[in-house]
Amino acid sequence: MITLSAAIGRYPHTAALLDGAVQDAEVTLDCAPFPVISRAFAPMVRELRFEVSEMAIATWLQAWAHGKPLVLLPRVLAARMQEGSLFCRVDSPIRGPADLAGKRIGVRAYSQTTGLWLRGILQDSHGVAPESVAWVTFEDPHVAECQDPPFATRAPAGTDMVKMLQAGELDAIISGNDAPSGDWLRPVFPDPAAAGQEFIRRHGFTPINHLLVMRADRAPHAGAVLRLMDGAGAAPISGRVAMMPAIAFAAHHAVRQGLIPRAPTLQEIWAGLPPDIA
After folding, report:
1. Is pLDDT of 63 > 90?
2. What would the DSSP string read from start to end of the chain?
3. Which of 47, 157, 185, 227 has the most CB atoms lying inside 10 A of its own CB?
4. pTM for this structure?
5. End of a domain among 165, 185, 203?
6. Which among 165, 170, 134 is positioned nearest to 152, based on CA atoms?
């Protein structure tokens, strides 16, 4: 048996794995503690610090574009509707997503996955092109080689995105899992749940936030890693075929938004994965 270093967030479908309740004769995972799993993504793509890692789909696309030796595994760790992550002030003149053209929108990083999805939704369904918005960012991309497009600027060091919105220095913000609260703000989408369901109805999938990757030199053990994952619980989306519609949408919009120069082909998406893994 070999032990692989890993960074995986705690979900209902990974808790048994993290707690050591599932085992495999070939592989065991030594999972580093990451209360905020997104903090593992930069060390993974910059240093290959782990042998198995959760990774945001936008980070994976940029890592692929820059030749990082990672293999994508056909399991999704996190997927959700995105529309509830876009906020404005309650007294804002913004009445819906179509009003965001020409506005200042704060986002933790331009490459943040929720931002990738929401920009795609804004463009496809509401006619708001990425370059028609002044994007204000607060962090670098996880992949060090990547640069933001010219229509994204960095907020002054030490500033707080939510406070900037409250002060009127931003017109809207995109949150992650740490959504802000207070009676002074509201969602930009009048009914985020209905908008999210409409996206799923139109496209046939739930947007993917986090995937699972391995270092390419450990890919021969991919089957064992997936046995451990499946033993812990059912992934939100599982299998190459089931994942492809969301990957294709994200890759198309990543190109459109200046995150990657071109979309990966089907063969490039699954390059290095043992052929017997569906």
Report:
1. yes
2. -EEEEEE----TTTHHHHTT----SSEEEEEPP-SSGGGGHHHHHHH---SEEEEEHHHHHHHHHTT--EEEEEEEEEE---GGGEEEETT-S--SGGGGTT-EEEES-TT-HHHHHHHHHHHHHH---GGGSEEEESS--SSTT----TTEEEPPTT--HHHHHHTTS-SEEE--SS----TTEEESSSSHHHHHHHHHHHHSSPPEEEEEEEEGGGGGGHHHHHHHHHHH---SSBSHHHHHHHHHHHHHHHHHTTSSSSPPPHHHHTTTS-TT--
3. 185
4. 0.96
5. 203
6. 134
Give the residue carrying structure tokens 């006619």: 127
In whole angstroms, give the CA distance from residue 110 to residue 89: 21
The CATH number that applies at residue 241 is: 3.40.190.10
**Using one digit for the tens of pLDDT, what is the confidence trace for 123-148?**
999 999 999 999 999 999 999 999 99
Give yes or no for residue 67 having a pLDDT over 90: yes
Q: Print the domain residue range for 41.
A: 2-80+206-269
Q: What is the pLDDT of residues 194-223, one digit of tens each?
A: 999 999 999 999 999 999 999 999 999 999
Q: Is 76 in the same domain as 210? A: yes
Q: In this predicted structure, what is the pLDDT of residue 164?
A: 97
- pLDDT at position 262 is 98
- Residue 271 pLDDT exceeds 90: yes
Residue 224 neighbours by CB distance under 10 Å:
18
Averaged pLDDT, 78-83: 97
- Which tokens go with 136? 């204000």
Total domains present in the chain: 2
Predicted local confidence at residue 200, as pLDDT: 98
